[in-house]
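[Structure tokenization] protein backbone as discrete codes
[Encoding] learned vocabulary of local backbone shapes
[Protein] chain in single-letter code, fold in tokens
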Amino acid sequence: MIRDFWVKNYLSICDKQELNFVAKGPASELVFEVAKDVFLYKLAILYGSNASGKSNMLKAMNEVFRLMVMPKSIASKKISGYIPFALSTNAPTEMHISFFAEGIRYDYYVAFNGNYILKEILNYYPKKAKSLFYERTFVNDKVQADIKFGQSLKLQAKTRESIRENTLNNHSVLSVCSKVAFKEDIAPFNVLINWIMLNCHEIDGDYRTSSTEILTKAYKDIKKRKFFNQILCKADLNILEYKPTVKYLKIPQKIREQINQGNMPDKIKESLLKKTIDSISFLNYSKKGNFEIPIEFQSKGTIKYIRILTTLYDMITSSHVYYLDELGEDLHYDLLFYYLNIFLFNSEESQLIITSQETTLLSQDLINDNRGVVWFVEKNKETAASEYSRGDSFGLHKNLSLYNSYHIGRLGAKPELGSVFIDLED
């Protein structure tokens, strides 16, 4: 779970902007005690007008974990995550994240430009006290970085030297474990990198995977299939269950001949000439008899809901960090709030960080009573940079509605729109 995160000079973020997930105590289902007397919010919701920078904070949080674990094969390869603020292109990007993995707290700081990791420090708390994991400083482009390792790691001299030799200036020290098979015991490195790889996900999770692939994969796992069928039934989509099917394609002979004679790779021809494709059939209920509907006839909202079920399953069955951008889009409000409640009431050590335009969530007692889960994002009019304010930082009395306060403009993060009248005269 993430304890806190800050970033500077990244996309629309110029000055240091921070998200802090620390809660005062076990107030509700929104909070989990990740360590003794350390309570963290499981949910964070970012609100703001379009182009305010909500999604950019998710990208930054995703990027810092990618930097930690993704190595580079050659020293000349650019750091793609370097996307500085438009008016600060000569300055490095800086990020800091504090998080808990396997019950241990880690604090990671990194500064980088498009070519090099300029500085990175990783501290951890293996016995509740702060200890150095490693510290790395850039020397110059033709010299390997200066790396110091903490004594608590108990690394052999040979291991330390091997890590130094394989750490290029454009990737992190930790990521060396992803490209080199060390014979020596480097268990602390492996524990951390494995946790990040397995538990910290890209924005929108399986966004590259089709809905058919998501459902087919879930169907092969008995426990996951039961979960998917149960959640689809509870969502009032009139779906009793689903099953993978095969759809037969009819390709006219003339079209087949054109494909065969076309100037394209054989693999593409083979794909275009396939006689069948994988599909999904849903069993729907009716008093007059049940009937099946193929996935291509399902509504956009139903498909959207299906696409976020893997996220929900992962979060309630183990420890995960997920980011969902514009959650609520294409979903009925009641279904959105229901989804969040399933997560909150059935998960423990998982975290869901979302952006949304569904401001009605602010009227829910669960959210209004735990304002630390809400963040309001807006662009500074003078600098055009994004600024982030936590919902409990405005000094609102507990009896005042967060929803009403936001809609009357007291909390900012709302678009200031011009006149509805348009002048097209010269």
